[in-house]
Amino acid sequence: MISSIVVYGGSGALGRAIVSAFIAKKWSVISVDFFPNQEATSNILLVKNDSLEEQGKRVVNEVKEPVDAIVCVAGGWAGGNAASPELFANSELMWKQSVHSSLVAAHLASKSLKAGGLLTLTGAYPAQKGTPFMIGYGMAKAAVHQLVASLAGPDSGLPADAKVNAILPVTLDTPMNRSGMPSADFSSWTPCSEVAETLYAWASKSKSVNSGKLVEIVTKDNKTTYTEK
């Protein structure tokens, strides 16, 4: 039987790397995003003006068969402190991109994840403490961290023996980040392909996962470590 995964955010930089990695391993891959990923087995296209409830119904209704794993890597970044003119707009955007997508992924897991399957969300390493220059981003990612703790508890609605965790990268090595920070030390950035291979190891159960954990992803001198918190 072919294993299957839903990649929420499958057309972003990390999402594309994950789709490619799982397709290479002969998995069936459903990409969920506003734009199709041509490499995926199938696509669920989101609608920009959908409410959270409409988005949730759209995704749940289009996943027809139980899946082995769900990975949510949808999100983005926006800065701004309490005095920023963009505070409210940026904070609302960050909430929609990170929290709404994570909630839909969690609800999908309650309906379509196989018993013993994996749900991985995306938090952020900096959001473990204050983020004064990017308040909206930090708040949204901290909410994702809390969601993981809730989902790992009893009566969370997830299937029996399901595992849930979150990846907490510092900086991913993406074309957008390179163009925005051309003078940065790239040896401290984590390649998307590296994260994708780790997610495959977790989803395929070749590497064990502890439920309810936040997994810090730190790269130094081109070497990446994963630390559960």
Shape assignment: globular
CATH superfamily: NAD(P)-binding Rossmann-like Domain
The separation of the N and C termini measures 34 Å
How are the strands of the biggest sheet laid out side by side? 3-2-1-4-5-6-9-10
Please report the number of helical segments: 6
- How many structural domains? 1
Helix/strand class: alpha/beta
Oligomer: single chain
CATH class: Alpha Beta
CATH topology: Rossmann fold
Uncertain regions: pLDDT < 50 for 5+ in a row?
none
> From the 3D coordinates, which CATH architecture would you assign?
3-Layer(aba) Sandwich
- The whole-angstrom Rg is 17 Å
Helix-strand sequence: EHEEHEHEHEEHEHEE
Compute the number of strand runs: 10
Summarize the amount of helix as a percent range.
Answer: 25-40%
Strand content: 15-25%
Biggest sheet character: 8 strands, mixed
Question: How much is the average pLDDT?
Answer: 95
Can you characterise this structure?
Helix content is 37%, strand content 24%. It is built from 6 helices and 10 strands; from the N terminus they run βαββαβαβαββαβαββ. The protein has helices at residues 13-24, 52-62, 87-112, 135-151, 175-180, 192-203; strands at residues 4-8, 28-33, 42-45, 67-72, 113-122, 163-169, 172-173, 190-191, 213-220, 223-228. α5 links the parallel β7 (172-173) and β8. α3 (87-112) runs parallel beside α4 (135-151). It is globular and about 50 Å long.
